[in-house]
Amino acid sequence: MASSTVDLATKDRGVLFNPNDEAKAAGWGTDDPYVHLAKLHDGPPVVKGVLEDLMGIPRQYHTEMWLGDVYSILSFEAVNKAFMDSETFSNRVYEKLSKPGLGDTLLNLDGGEHKRLRNVSKPWFKPSFTDGWWTNMWTISAIDEIFDRITAKDHADLNLELCAPLPMSVVSAGFGIPASEALEFRQALLMHASPEEMAKGHAFAADMLTRLMDERRAKPKDDLISRFVHADIEQADGTTRKMTPDEVMRYCFLIIHAGGGTTWRQLGITILALMNHPEQLEALRQDRSLMRPAIQEVTRWYPTDTAFLRYVEKDTVLEGVEMKAGSVAMLCLGTANRDRKQWEDPDTLNIHRPAKRHFAFGAGAHACLGQHLSRQEMEVALGALLDRLGDLRWDPDYPPARMGGGTLIGRGPEALHVRYTPKPKQ
Amino acid sequence: MTGASESHQWSCLYCGYVYDEAVGEALDGIAPGTRWEDIPDDWCCPHCSAEKDSFEHV
Questions:
Q1: What total of structural domains would you count in chain A?
Q2: Residue A139 lies in domain
């Protein structure tokens, strides 16, 4: 039977699956953000200034390219207001961040155009569909295959052998990209040392998707590419039409790009956090009803991205601070998710906290489309980890695992070397 | 239908979207005054697609 998952080798670790190498390639510092953010909690909720400057770290977001003022949005309430008011705080920043590489996508569009485009795929990412179709068709089989490989021995790097291949395999398979081509597709989309290489990589990925779209138009399968090529998109005047091949292509690029990276890093953070809090890992092992609260808590405590940007569309006042149109707002998840007014002892990981909303997956009109799929993948992965890896512990032959990645972008562990007693699937 | 004085709001646990019974949700064809319990069970959050059981009364 053909493999449905990507089996990564150590040679694949590099920029693709090592957050530190990824950060270094982008020229970012890799300091832990929370050391630098601690001093901002007692200050005002909104501050005129670049977040990295307030933190005292090298800049990662080149906010100077927008030419306007820059504001750091720090408190839960202020970040919430900015996320929820997309007419004032728009995603136009992504015209410079993502559009050059991915074209017009959900990331950089706003208003009705964004909503109509998002409505196309909304049914395929709602919780009942992710709990049903995604999990039953793709996630469980991928997890079984991955854990069959892991339990054939008594040690593993869970970053490379579980966290990285799982979302890449699930998202690729769900779209209809064969596992044998998934890694090549991801490399083509992401690994670019120059603009020429990016153009070459995107051309390769576009050729692959064009082939798959042609095949699915002729003979649909139960996958997302088939759904996309036959989907209707609503127009501003209320009429509908089919998506163009270019629209489908850009949608696929974005989701495959986002779906592989974020869940990889966040699952790694979750495993690292729970293994460093063994009493909470044990509580979860004993009571699986804690699974959803545990994931909600780890994503609050340590989201893979520490800050999101928004463009200030019109003169406004936020928490008493005047902002001019054309400014950039840096919404700091790292401080908002640890706001002292919202959570008791917020720097402490506590999976027993009552469920409460936070911003790990954004909020408002641009809240992460794939967040329910991401949570579901992490739930299935953690369940298998608890069921099939007995006596799970850090591998003493390696240095202690720690968080890495860019300080504000793409946090995650570079390796998770563990030892265990393998157990068969029940 | 309900009067404004009895209107209730429900907030999505995942993205913060607030459904206000007094306002409805025009883009989904839900008229102002539509009670939460009268919204179809398969309706989902206009922002993040969470379903009705992921909303809390606020």
A1: 1
A2: 2-415
CATH number, residue A117: 1.10.630.10
pTM of this structure: 0.92
The identity of residue A312, as a single letter, is V
- Looking at residue A138, the DSSP 8-state letter turns out to be I
Are A165 and A173 in contact by the 8 Å Cβ rule? The answer is no
Contact A370, A230 (CB under 8 A): no
- Does A115 reside within a domain? yes
Residue A319 lies in a domain: yes
CB spacing of A127 vs B50 below 8 angstroms: yes
Quick check: B32 contacting A, CB < 8 Å?
Answer: no
End-to-end CA distance of chain B: 19
A39: number of Cβ within 10 Å: 11
Tell me the longest C-alpha to C-alpha distance in chain B: 29
Is position A80 within any domain? Answer: yes
A137: amino acid identity, one letter = M
Torsion angle of alpha carbons A13, A19, A23, A29, nearest 10°? -140
From A307's Cα to the closest Cα of chain B, the distance in A is 16
Q: Are B16 and A80 an interchain contact pair (Cβ–Cβ within 8 Å)? A: yes
DSSP string covering A29-86: ----HHHHHGGGTTS-SEEES-HHHHHTS--SS-GGGG-S-EEEE-SHHHHHHHHH-T
pLDDT digits (tens, 9 = 90+) for A220-274: 999 999 999 999 999 999 899 999 988 998 888 888 878 878 999 999 999 999 9
Contact A325, A312 (CB under 8 A): yes
| Residue A409 in domain | yes
